[in-house]
Design goal:
The chain is mainly alpha-helical and 136 residues long. It has one domain: Cytochrome c-like domain (Cytochrome Bc1 Complex, Chain D, domain 2). Helix content is 32%, strand content 0%.
Length: 136
């Protein structure tokens, strides 16, 4: 299955994706969905709502450029969600989603951010726990 097709399939309700299109836990511990929700809602940390809409009604001006996060836990496993948050370019090299947990192969990175991930492993796990909790 091509990476582009695998990425597209995750957008379809009830779609399954091959196991190689996933990533195991970065910490070996479950994340905290409440902390993950806070990261997704925070416009200075994750910036998720810049492109995505989410079931966070108190946050106005949510994006519609990318798929809604509502129901994400019904469309993908935690391992599949983790891969998309950590490095969506592994599935779609043309994605505009930033790699939240990758430091290699990036261009135009401010010197103060070089060699640093956008989110920590724990924050990735928290976001994954939140997204996995979003069922249809």
């Amino acid at each position: 299955m091509s990476r582009a097709l695998a990425a597209l399939l995750l957008l379809l309700p009830g779609a399954a994706v091959a196991q190689q299109d996933s990533m195991p836990s970065l910490t070996g511990k479950p994340g905290d969905p409440a902390r993950g929700r806070a990261i997704v809602a925070n416009r200075t940390v994750g910036l998720c709502l810049l492109c995505h809409g989410a079931p966070i009604p108190e946050e106005r001006f949510q994006g519609n450029l990318a798929p809604s996060l509502a129901g994400a836990g019904s469309r993908a496993t935690p391992d599949q969600l983790r891969l998309r948050v950590a490095d969506a370019a592994r599935l779609n090299p043309d994605t505009i989603m930033p790699p939240y947990y990758r430091v290699d192969g990036l261009t135009r990175v401010a010197r103060s951010f070089q060699g640093k991930t956008i989110l920590t492993a724990e924050q990735i796990e928290d976001v994954v726990a939140y997204l996995a909790s979003l069922k249809d």
